[in-house]
Design brief:
heterodimer; A: about 100 residues; alpha+beta; 3-stranded antiparallel beta sheet; about 60% helix; about 20% strand; elongated; B: about 160 residues; mainly alpha
């Protein structure tokens, strides 16, 4: 069972969007994330750097032919933090339901 | 932060997470055109098997295997969508579903082709592969929507 823990790094809307997306896939290209989340290149780079510094995301840079290709994946601690954050959200909802019921 | 967040906000955030993950999963799974493209290539191979000499059939079969294999690998490594499917979300059931579809398509195509040949129908391989292609065109998108549901059920738990 995942322990519920609200995560301040993940809580920010744009980072939550990025982490949610990465939690559903093995790894995603920069372009895929940018298109899905609807951020500019620079804004996405900034958010990915914050997540990378928190140890939640691993960024890989390489080439496909001559074109540079950047991809990102959630680290083990990133997945754990996301699962704990989701569990915390569910806990809030459950508590609210219990209070209402 | 936790105490500041209300039930509605938490529910909204959770719904957004689920919607975003659902969209991502739909994008990373194989698109509908893939099944039609492979089906069309199958029918072409069947027609070649019915009408062309052995040397052409061998070359066509090798080309077919290389094209379908390459396309499938490209899809699996995420080249098609720009993201890779998370294997653990698919689980053994997902793998079994994919293998079952393969058996259904190949078995169906071969069964119909051999039956058509036994009945003396013209173009038995074309008929067989057309049936296989139809199974693929129907079964492929069905398998993808089943996999999407399976994977969605395992994300954001």
């Amino acid at each position: 069972m995942t322990e519920a823990r609200f995560d301040a790094v993940i809580h920010a809307p744009t980072r939550l969007a990025i982490v949610s997306l990465l939690a559903a896939v093995e790894a995603a290209d920069f372009k895929f994330i940018r298109d899905e989340v609807g951020l500019s290149d620079s804004a996405l780079s900034k958010q990915l750097t914050i997540l990378e510094e928190a140890g939640y995301v691993k960024i890989s840079r390489g080439f496909v032919g001559k074109r540079p290709r950047t991809s990102a994946r959630l680290t083990r601690s990133g997945r754990a933090a996301f699962d704990a954050h989701v569990a915390a959200l569910r806990e809030i909802i459950d508590r609210g339901a219990r209070r209402a019921g | 932060v936790m105490t500041e967040m209300g039930t509605d906000d938490a529910a909204r955030q959770l719904a957004e997470i689920e919607a975003r993950q659902g969209r991502a999963l739909r994008r990373v799974l194989v698109p509908r055109w893939y099944w039609w493209a492979v089906g069309a290539a199958m029918v072409a191979l069947g027609w070649i098997a019915d009408t062309q000499p052995k040397s052409v059939i061998v070359v066509a079969a090798l080309l077919f295997a290389a094209a379908v294999g390459g396309l499938s690998v490209w899809a699996v490594v995420g080249g098609m969508a720009g993201a890779r499917v998370r294997g653990e979300l698919m689980g053994p059931e997902g793998a079994v579903g994919i293998v079952l579809l393969d058996f259904l398509v190949v078995g169906g195509a071969l069964g119909v082709a051999f039956s058509a040949r036994a009945l003396g129908w013209p173009y038995p391989a074309t008929i067989g592969t057309a049936c296989g292609a139809l199974l693929l065109a129907i079964g492929g998108p069905f398998l993808m929507s089943w996999l999407e549901r399976l994977m969605r059920g395992r994300t954001a738990r």
